Amino acid sequence: MRIAARFACLAVLLAGPGHDQALAASGWLNWRGPNQNGVSPAKDKLPDTLELGGPNYRWSYKVRGAGAPVIADGRVYAFGFYGETTDVEETLLCLDARTGAKIWEHRFRDYLSDTTYNRYAIGAPVVDAETGNIYLESTFGHVFAWNRDGKLLWQHSMMEEFGRLTFPNGRTGGLVVEGNLVITDGITANWGADGPARNRFYAFDKRTGEICWFSTPGIEPIDSTFATPVYGNIGNQRAFYQGTGCGHVVSINARTGEPIWRFRLSGAGVNADVVLVGPDKMIAVHGKENMDATHHGRMVLLKIPTEYPAGPKPVVLGKEAELWRNDDIVAFSSSPIVVGQRVYSTVATGSLVCVDLETGKTVWSEKLGPDQLHASPAYADGKLYVPLHPGTVTVLKDAGDKAQILSVNQMGAPCLGAPSFYGDSVFIFTKEGLHCFGVKSTPPAIPPAATVAAEALSTAPITQLQVVPAEFALAPGESQTFTVWGLDATGRRVKNVAAEAKFEKFIPPTALVKSEVDCTIEGNVLKTTSAAKLSAGAFKITWNNLATTACRGRVVASYGFKEDFEKLPLGQKNEFKEDVGFPPLPWLGARVKWHALDKDGSRVLANRLDTILFQRTMNFIGKAGMKNYTIEADVMTDGNRRIMSTVGLVNQRYLIAMTGNSRILEITSNHERLKESVPFDVQANTWYHLKTRVDADKSGPGGFVRAKLWIKGQPEPNKWTIELRQEKLHQEGAPAVFAFSPQSQKRVFIDNLSISANE
After folding, report:
1. Of 597, 602, 596, 653, residue with least CA distance to 623
2. Checking DSSP bridges between strand 102-108 and strand 89-96, what pairing results, if any?
3. Residues of 179-192 as b/e, b for ≥16 C-beta within 10 angstroms?
4. E-strand spans in 191-236?
5. Cα dihedral value 90, 212, 218, 509, nearest 10
6. Low-confidence ranges of the chain (pLDDT < 50)
C-alpha cells in the first residue's frame, strides 16, 4: 500500500493546477518514467551490480532493441526487432515482468523507408494510465494502438496519410499520452499550406484514433529528431516542450496544438529530451552546431514563460532567456537528468558530467567509456545507472566532488537506450537482448495497480471549437461524420456540439490554390459521390458566436482513377523558362516537387530540379488501406547514355522503378530489406509503359509483386517483365508516384496514370 500511495501522490503532483484527475499510475509508463525525466521516485532497493548470469540477474529475452521498455501492472512492453538483412521485422512484445515469459507479440515489417543498417527500434511504447492501452510508432512511421490483451484498436500510416518522411538514421522516439490525446511528431510534407517539409506534431484521440489537431511550430528542418514531448503547465494551460529538427526547443498547447513559443538552440536537430526544473526553468542540451560559436554542443538553463502569452504566437525567445550555458556538454541525443541541485549528462566522448544547477559550472566529469551515442542515464535508489554505446552499464553514486563507481557491467552488446525501473527491478535493453536485474534472493516485486479515472468533462463556458477529425481523406463515394467539441478556455472538452453546428466550405484568403472539396454537407456529415473529382479544401464550422477553420480534407485517387493531366492549368515559369503548372492538390507533398508541362504533344508531369533537396520524391495519391489493384502509367527519363534518372510507381508498399542509369526494372520496399531487379535496356527520352500489380494469396500471408515494362505504343507483352514472390506480403498500401534525379540533373516524366482493381 505504501508504494501505491506514493505513486498516487506523485500523480497528483504531476497533474498540476487545472487537473482534477491524476495522469499517472503505478508503472514506468513511458521511456523517461513517471516524471518524464529519467528519475524514479520509488524507494525500492535496487542492485548495485548488473552482471549477466550473476547474483542479481533475473531473466533475459532475446530481441534486439535500441530504446527502453515500459512496464505497467506486471507487464513489460518492449519495442524491438529481429533479423539482420532481408528478414528484419520490428515487434511489440508483452512479457511477464517476473519471469520474462512472452504473453503476446505483434510483428511488423518496414516499408518504403530509408532506414539503413539496423537502426531500428530507436524509441519506446507508451502506456495510457487510464485505459491500459499501449501506443507505439514504428521506425517507418506507422502508429499503432493496442489494448492490454494485444488487440489492435486503430492504426495510422503517417507516411501514406500525412507525408511523413523517413531518414537513414531511423530516428523515431516515443509517443506520449496526455488526457484524451496521443501525440507524435515527424518531418512531414503534406498538402496545401502544409506541403513544404516541416517538423509537425499530430494529436489523435486515444480511443478512436481520429486526428484532433496538427501543429507546425518551427521553420524549415535541417534534419530529423527523436526527442519526446515533456509536459508542464503555462498558467492554466497544459503545454508540452520538445526539441525539433529545425534546431529549436518549442512549446505547444497540448490540448489545441497552438504553438506557444520557440527558442533557437542549435544549428541542427535537437534530439535530447528537455528537463523541466520547477514551473519556470528548463534544461536543454544538444551536440550539433551552435548558432553563435564555431564549436559544437551546449547545455543551457532557460527561463521559460509562466503565463500564457497573448497576441501572435509562437513567441520567439531570445538569448535573454538563457540563465546560463555550459559548453562542456556535447550530447547529441543523450537526455540529461536533474537530481536535487545537480544535472547529469553523458557526452559524446563517453564521460558522465555533473553540472551545478544554480551556476551551470561543471562539478566533476568521470570517463566511463570511449564514446557515447543515444543512450541516456537514469537515477533510482540513490544511484545513477549509465549505459554507454560500447555495451557497458556503470552504476555509481555522486560523492560530492567526484563520482563513486559501484560497478561496471558488461552487457555484451551496444546499449542505445535508457534504463527502466519497476518495483525492485532494473531493465536494460541492448542490441542483442532485454535484461532484467534485481536484488539477490529477492522475488520480483510488482507494485499494486492503480485506478486512474478518465479526464472529466469541463463545466466551464465554451470559448473555442475543435473539429474531429481535423483532417481527412476520402475515396469517391465515401462519407465523413464529424464531432465538434466545445472547449473551455483551457482547452478541456465541455460537450459535443456537432448537432447544432453549421458546416460550410471555406477558402482561406492566403490559399495559393482556390479549391474546394467536391462534396455535399448534410448537418455534420460530409458526403462524396462515386463520381467525385480529386479535390481538396478547408471548412468553416460555426456554433453560436464561435467559429473555427481548423478542418480540411481531400478526395483522393481510388479504383477507376485516370489522369492524363490535360486539364491541369499552366501559367507559371520554371527555371528552364517553360510554361508550367502544378500537380493535383490532393497529392501529398507534390506541389513543391512536380510541374505539369507540355511535352511531345501532351500535357505531362515532370519532377522539379530547382532544389537538390527534392532530387528524390515519393508522393502518395490514394488511401493507405487500398489493396489488390493495378497502377500503371507512361514513363520516361531525360538524359543520355551516361546520365539518366529513375521513375517509378508505388503499389501496395512496393516501389517498382525503371532505373535508367542501371538499366534495370527493380522492385524494392526498403533497399536493404528487399531489392530485386531484372535487366532492361532503358533508353533516354523514350516513352515506356509501366504496369504494376500486387496479388495476395487467397489464404496465407504471401503473394506476388508483378510488373511489365515496354515501349509505349507497342503491344503489351504476355509475360511479366519481373515477378517476385513474397512469403510475407504487404497486405495493403497507398498508390504513389516516384522520381529520383541524382544531383538534380535529369528529369523524369509521367503521363496517362491509372488505377484499376485487379481482375
Report:
1. 653
2. antiparallel
3. bbbbbbbbbbbbbb
4. 198-205, 211-215, 230-234
5. 140
6. 1-25
Counting other chains too, the contacts that 605-608 makes at CB distance below 8 Å and 24 or more residues apart are: 605/565, 605/737, 605/749, 605/750, 605/751, 605/753, 606/747, 606/748, 606/749, 606/750, 607/645, 607/739, 607/741, 607/747, 607/748, 608/574
562-757: CATH homologous superfamily? Exo-inulinase; domain 1 (2.60.120.560)
Residue owning grid cell 538524359: 639
Helix (H) or strand (E) holding 4: helix 2-15
pLDDT given at position 9: 38
Q: Smallest Cα–Cα separation from 546: which of 464, 459, 460?
A: 464
CA distance 162 to 9: 39
What does the block give as the cell for 279?
A: 514551473
Rounded to an integer, what distance in angstroms lies between the CA atom of residue 407 and that of residue 368? 11
Q: Are 224 and 215 in contact (CB under 8 A)?
A: no
pLDDT value at position 689? 98
What is the distance of C-alpha 521 from the center of its chain?
Answer: 33
- What is the spatial distance between Cα 118 and Cα 129, in angstroms, rounded to a whole number? 32
Q: What burial class does residue 686 get, using C-beta atoms within 10 Å of its C-beta: 0-12 exposed, 13-18 middle, 19+ buried?
A: exposed
Q: Let me know: does 432 contact 62? Beta carbons within 8 Å.
A: yes
Measure the CA–CA gap between 134 and 79, rounded to whole angstroms. Answer: 11
List, for residues 457-477, the tens digit of each pLDDT value.
Answer: 999 999 999 999 999 999 999
Predicted pLDDT of residue 26: 64
Question: CB count, 10 Å around CB of 704?
Answer: 15
CA distances from 467 to 188, 207, 486 (A): 21, 16, 9
Q: Which CATH number fits domain 464-555: 2.40.50, 1.20.1420, 1.20.1260, 2.60.40?
A: 2.60.40
Query: Identity (one letter) of the amino acid at 756?
Result: S
- At the fourth CATH level, the homologous superfamily of domain 2-438 is YVTN repeat-like/Quinoprotein amine dehydrogenase (2.130.10.10)
Q: How far is CA 569 from CA 294, 580, 595, in A?
A: 48, 8, 11
Is residue 264 a contact partner of residue 318, using CB atoms and an 8 Å limit? no
pTM beyond 0.85: the answer is yes
What is the β-pairing status of strands 664-668 and 675-679? antiparallel
Residue intervals in the chain for CATH 2.130.10.10: 2-438
Pick from 567, 545, 537, 458: which is nearest to 501 by CA?
Answer: 545
Long-range contacts for 657-660 (Cβ within 8 Å, ≥24 apart)? 657/738, 657/740, 658/682, 658/688, 658/690, 658/709, 660/684, 660/746
